[in-house]
Design goal:
Keywords: ATP-binding, Kinase, Nucleotide biosynthesis, Nucleotide-binding, Transferase. Belongs to the thymidylate kinase family. This is Thymidylate kinase. It catalyses: dTMP + ATP = dTDP + ADP. InterPro entries: P-loop_NTPase (IPR027417), Thymidylate_kin-like_dom (IPR039430), Thymidylate_kinase (IPR018094). With 207 residues, the chain is of the alpha/beta class. It has one domain: P-loop containing nucleotide triphosphate hydrolases (Rossmann fold, 3-Layer(aba) Sandwich). A 5-stranded parallel beta sheet has the order 2-3-1-4-5, sandwiched between helices. The chain is globular. Bound molecules: adenosine-5'-triphosphate and the ligand Cc1cn([C@H]2C[C@H](O)[C@@H](COP(=O)(O)O)O2)c(=O)[nH]c1=O. The site of the ligand Cc1cn([C@H]2C[C@H](O)[C@@H](COP(=O)(O)O)O2)c(=O)[nH]c1=O has 12 residues, from helix 4. The ligand Cc1cn([C@H]2C[C@H](O)[C@@H](COP(=O)(O)O)O2)c(=O)[nH]c1=O binds next to helix 4.
């Protein structure tokens, strides 16, 4: 996977209900108005095969290892047919989740060995990481109250609070490991304040 990366790769992460999806459309509009070509996509998903895998992943019971491998299978397809071509054309790619989610959910939440994650990440991404990751951070209690108010829950969203707590802690560990790339966005504040934090977190890339 030889990537000519002239665009920008932005990923958006957080526990379920952290509020990330609410801001992606706003960010797309902001970047478009600033003159950039923007591709918005998501994981698992973003391709016909990836969306089929998403339906399985969000609904069917499976072992934690199977879950991790399917996340990376969807990602391999996503990288080769959407993300890398868009970056090569100079677009800003905004992905609703990427491999930090696999670290948080499958390693942190499910307990899959970190070395298995690292092996798959090396194989599939060959060193490619986002230019910036916006990590929406909120307490599990707040996130769960938001979700229960708004939708029918999927297989991940139905997990108990201690699962979501482990996922949040794993995201924090990952952010501590990559402080330049991963920026925490406090999302338990009004929407306009969240958006102000997003612009600060992207300011060097936008300059
Ligand atoms: N800053 C905020 N203050 C109050 N409510 C918010 C805030 N951000 C998002 N919400 C509300 O929380 C709910 C969940 O938000 P959203 O769907 O964006 O979360 P999410 O992190 O994308 O969830 P998922 O990952 O499960 O898709 C929505 O009803 C949204 O309006
Ligand atoms: C990429 C990725 C995702 N997940 C989980 C996290 C969420 O619960 C769902 C996706 O739902 P969303 O509404 O789009 O946030 O999938 C995961 O466990 N591991 C991953 O790598």
């Amino acid at each position: 996977m030889a990537v000519v990366n002239t665009g920008r790769f932005i990923t958006v992460e957080g526990i379920d209900g952290a509020g990330k999806s609410s801001h992606i459309e706003w960010l797309r509009n902001y970047l478009t108005q600033a003159g950039h070509a923007v591709v918005v996509t998501r994981e698992p998903g973003g391709t016909p095969l990836g969306e089929s895998l998403r339906t399985l992943l969000l609904n069917e019971p499976m072992s934690p290892e199977t879950e991790m491998m399917l996340m990376f299978a969807a990602r391999a397809e996503h990288l080769s047919s959407v993300i890398c071509p868009a970056l090569a054309q100079g677009a800003w790619v905004i992905s609703d989740r990427f491999s930090d989610a696999t670290y948080a959910y499958q390693v942190g939440g499910r307990g899959v060995a970190e070395r298995k994650f690292a092996a798959l990440e090396d194989w599939v991404q060959e060193g490619l990481q986002p230019d910036r990751t916006l990590l929406f951070d909120v307490s599990v209690a707040t996130a769960q109250a938001r979700l229960h108010d708004t939708r029918i829950l999927d297989r991940f969203e139905r997990e108990a609070s201690d699962f979501h707590q482990r996922v949040r802690e794993a995201y924090h560990q990952r952010a501590a490991q990559y402080p330049e790339r991963i920026r925490l966005i406090a999302s338990d504040v009004p929407m306009d304040d969240v958006r102000a934090q997003i612009l600060v977190a992207l300011s060097d890339l936008l300059a």
